Amino acid sequence: MIGAGHAGLAASSFLTARAIDHVVLERGEVANSWRRERWDSLRLLTPNWQSRLPGHAYDGPDPDGYMTMREVIEFISSFASRSRAPVRTHTAVTSLVRRDDGYAVVTDSTEIRCRCVVIASGACNVPSVPSFSDAIPSSIEQLTPFDYRAPSHLPDGGVLVVGASATGVQLAHEIHASGRPVTVCVGEHVRLPRTYRGRDVLWWMDRAGVWNQRYDEVDDLIRARRLPSPQLVGTPERTTLDLNALTAAGVTLVGRIATVRDGTALFSGGLRNMFALADLKMQRLLDTFDEWASSCGGALDVGPPERFPATRVPESLRLQLDLRRGAIRSIVWATGFRPDYRWLHVPVVDEKGHLRHEGGVVDSPGLYALGLPVLRRRKSTFIHGIEDDARDVIDHLAGYLAR
Ligand SMILES: Cc1cc2nc3c(=O)[nH]c(=O)nc-3n(C[C@H](O)[C@H](O)[C@H](O)COP(=O)(O)OP(=O)(O)OC[C@H]3O[C@@H](n4cnc5c(N)ncnc54)[C@H](O)[C@@H]3O)c2cc1C
Questions:
Q1: Is 43 close to ligand 1, i.e. is its CB under 6 Å away?
Q2: Which of 45, 73, 258, 304 is the most exposed place for a label (fewest CB within 10 A)?
Q3: Which one, of 323, 376, 368, lies nearest residue 348 by Cα?
Q4: Does the model's pTM come out above 0.70?
């Protein structure tokens, strides 16, 4: 097993249950990504009741709350102890190659031969930053969500946040609240209200069966796997943090950043369409919830259907911004993440850097993956999604070993 995040640990618990000898190799510590790669104020956007791993669930006093990073680390670490996962920390895998009827796993301290390998090294190892970031004037500080910790670490002055997924809207909101003027570049995004008809929107997704949709039932799987994370934040007040909330707070919205030329950032003019599309998709999802609620008859304790105002288009839309004028002092690239497979020397990575796999069964005998977007279900990358995926993948692995 490569990686001791929640995915590797869940798979390890199923291997242990089947008495399959294994080891979990982790370059840092258990829950390393949550310890090293997240900003200070982050809380899960999934509610506590949804934090569940095989045989391990949140059992505190606030099921509708959202865990802080300290609580997530504690939750995953206690799962590792409870399931007695055989984790070797501070052991980075530097190379994986095919050998005879199995694999040679080279780490920074040893080499291990095995018949099967499960890659659970994460889907978000490296922040994705467009190549034209090289053309940004050197007077501007550039950060990714891996470098960013808190607004106080940024220089005073204007901030350009590129991206409006969960990360982008959360960082834009907290940086703006620190007194720095913020402009957000908005591309394709997923709009959601935090609560709907009195319940967390993720409760609706759970109960209406949206999360459980299987990868082989999804119409456009490639697209589903690249979908940005929803505009959600986990706060004690259960606030909605969509673009209207950012506009109301005083944040400026511009279109997707197309490039930087001669020190000027050029933005797409398609903001109106982008908003209309996100509004429409949210509307359809709410319709799905309403249909499901109707099918339950009067059995549900929920409020009446709600509809939300369309996303407000700025009155004057800025199409470019001269970055040499000093109005922007820092840029935060909230443009997503990608996996890092530089150590993987088995020909299973496509030209876009994605693993070739069928529901986690990688295109090489005995090689498996977990924790990737819509790996087997819509919920695959979320903490609560791993149990079903890990069970299925380890079932397949056990069958392979038995043959
Ligand atoms: C900003 C952010 C917020 C998120 N919020 C939520 C949320 O609210 N709720 C939710 O359910 N999900 C959330 N997710 C999604 C998901 O739960 C996390 O990405 C989670 O960390 C994925 O778990 P994982 O085990 O697949 O990967 P990771 O947690 O990334 O674990 C992979 C492990 O592999 C190790 N590793 C990598 N390469 C090597 C190597 N070569 N050798 C040895 N070890 C290696 C890493 O150190 C790491 O510990 C969020 C993700 C991000 C990025």
A1: no
A2: 304
A3: 368
A4: yes
